[in-house]
């Protein structure tokens, strides 16, 4: 890895949590320089503008979450276990409210009307997440682990909405108990699928 690549990676790694916590509009160039210890010139020597840093930070945060989900799913042997893995991974995100929570939710709400490129990335992430759950449910149906006649798309949308909605409510109320209540409902829902 070249020095320029190392510097670029440092910028992304150090700023990703800030963008996730403060959002695009709330993250300033001063935040970026303070987090990295680099000058503005160094930042702009590696990225054309703050937009590029924000897009790279989103990719970094998403990749981090996806690798945690994949690792947790690899520990599971049943479809139900793999679906419940999402709850376990997101529990880690919400358990530390200081890290900002879910980058998909944060970016979707932050960039909805203000940053089309970030909005597009958040949309792609949700659609990919939905597709992955649909594939899991279809696999579960074919292996007789999930009831035949179940609607994979409806299951995927319900899971995503409950996870993201649970994060939003827990963060707004600053009560982890709200997250736990919603996830208990989601676990019950998943258990009714078999």
UniProtKB/TrEMBL annotation:
Residues 5-65 form the HTH tetR-type domain. InterPro entries: Homeodomain-like_sf, HTH_TetR, Tet_transcr_reg_TetR-rel_C_sf, TetR_C. Keywords: DNA-binding, Transcription, Transcription regulation. It comes from Pedobacter endophyticus. Residues 28-47 bind DNA. GO terms for molecular function: DNA binding. This is TetR/AcrR family transcriptional regulator. It holds the Pfam family TetR_C_13.
């Amino acid at each position: 890895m070249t020095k320029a690549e190392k510097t670029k990676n440092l910028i992304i790694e150090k700023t990703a949590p800030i963008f996730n916590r403060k959002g695009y509009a709330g993250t300033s160039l001063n935040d970026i320089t303070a987090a990295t210890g680099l000058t503005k010139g160094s930042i702009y020597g590696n990225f054309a503008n703050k937009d590029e840093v924000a897009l790279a930070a989103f990719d970094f945060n998403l990749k981090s979450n996806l690798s945690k989900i994949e690792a947790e799913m690899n520990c599971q042997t049943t479809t139900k276990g793999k679906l419940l893995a999402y709850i376990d991974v997101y529990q880690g995100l919400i358990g530390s409210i200081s890290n900002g929570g879910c980058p998909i939710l944060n970016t979707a709400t932050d960039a909805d009307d203000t940053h089309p490129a970030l909005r597009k990335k958040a949309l792609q992430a949700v659609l990919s997440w939905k597709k992955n759950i649909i594939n899991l449910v279809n696999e579960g149906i074919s292996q007789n682990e999930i009831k035949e006649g179940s609607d994979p798309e409806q299951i995927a949308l319900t899971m995503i909405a409950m996870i993201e909605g649970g994060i939003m409510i827990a963060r707004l109320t600053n009560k982890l108990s709200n997250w736990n209540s919603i996830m208990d409902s989601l676990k019950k829902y998943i258990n009714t699928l078999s």
